[in-house]
Design goal:
2 helices, 26 strands, mainly beta, binds manganese (II) ion
Length: about 325
């Protein structure tokens, strides 16, 4: 996916809630025809671990005319993580990759020094694949400075480790179900994703699938910071009630967080070791300096990222570059 806007920051001011935790509210944004809830970056927090961008979209009807239609656009300095709850999205990139993704699968694109891609809702010819409801998240992972110039790559993982989260022992234990946990990036407890990661990180989906309330204790690495958000339903994490569009931040130093949810709820846990690097994000580029942004913009204008085959339509044009805004001091996250 792509940010259409040059500056993707969410302007909401964090509101302290409980035990130094903070809950922020998504900003509504548009990616083409698709309405998204943009949960990260925040003006005051540009990354959580290496996660530097969180868009949550849908559930939205797609009928072949609406839905996701992001024309070819470039990326540098990041990995894109595509994860669906419903529907399907077709990915094409300048390496020649063409991959339809379905719920429970991971599309992971490592831009390294540069890649271009397009993502579209499609109406698959197979009735079994036909699903007009699109619901998912688009996440970016910043590449640490030492890995920013790696070769571009694309991975599709149809099978990912799943583990049940031990149910929290409570007086209601007989009526409380377990979360099913899928680790799509990094590791959580004993489960490790096969996807390529460049920093200590976790990305996991928790679902309360059973026809009952689910509760459990998330094991957390104390050297990680984390965020938790829900994609549908209602949950409570570390005592904080959450609904879609809210982002709970958990600082380093925690070893566990209790989480509970209504049946049918999907919860996301993202975290990692604080990056400790000052990111400069503009349009679809994650860089460190305005000069890098300007150079990448010129490379895109000059067609140096390569063509995305198979897409019917024109590539995206970069917005006008405002160097003065790029040079504005930013907090280190
Ligand atoms: Mn993209």
């Amino acid at each position: 996916m792509s940010t259409i806007e040059a500056n993707p920051e969410v302007d909401d001011v964090p509101v302290p809630r409980k035990n130094d935790h903070e809950v922020t509210t998504a900003r509504n944004a548009q990616v083409g025809n698709l309405a998204v809830r943009r949960l990260l970056p925040l003006r005051t927090r540009r990354s959580v671990g290496a996660w530097c961008f969180i868009d949550h979209y849908g559930p939205a009807d797609t009928d072949g005319r609406t839905g996701m239609n992001v024309p070819p656009h470039p990326h540098i300095g990041l990995q894109t993580v595509t994860w669906l709850l419903h529907g399907n999205v077709l990915h094409r990139d300048s390496l020649g990759s063409e991959q339809l993704i379905r719920p429970g699968q991971l599309n992971l694109m490592t831009s390294g020094r540069g890649i271009a891609h397009a993502e579209e809702s499609v109406i698959p010819p197979s009735a079994a694949d036909r699903n007009p409801v699109l619901h998912g998240v688009q996440l970016w992972v910043a590449l640490p400075d030492a890995s920013r110039q790696v070769e571009p790559a694309f991975e599709h993982h149809a099978v990912l480790p799943q583990t049940p989260l031990p149910a929290t022992a409570t007086g209601r234990a007989t009526s409380v179900g377990r979360f099913a946990v899928t680790v799509f990036l990094g590791e959580l407890a004993e489960s490790r994703s096969p996807a390529t990661a460049f920093s200590p990180i976790v990305g996991a989906e928790l679902t309360a699938r059973q026809q009952q309330h689910a509760a459990g204790t998330l094991p957390l690495r104390p050297d990680f910071e984390h965020v938790i958000f829900v994609a549908n339903g209602r949950a409570e994490a570390d005592g904080v009630p959450l609904e879609p569009g809210q982002l709970l931040y958990l600082p380093t130093g925690l070893e566990a967080a209790p989480v509970a949810a209504q049946s049918g709820t999907t919860v996301f846990l993202l975290g990692g070791v604080p990056l400790g690097e000052q990111l400069l994000m503009w349009w679809n580029f994650v860089a460190r300096t305005p000069e890098e942004i300007a150079a990448a913009t010129a490379r895109w204008r000059d067609g140096e990222f390569g063509a995305v085959g198979g897409y019917q339509g024109e590539p995206l044009l970069a917005p006008a570059l405002d160097v003065a805004r790029l040079l504005r001091p930013r907090p280190i996250s």
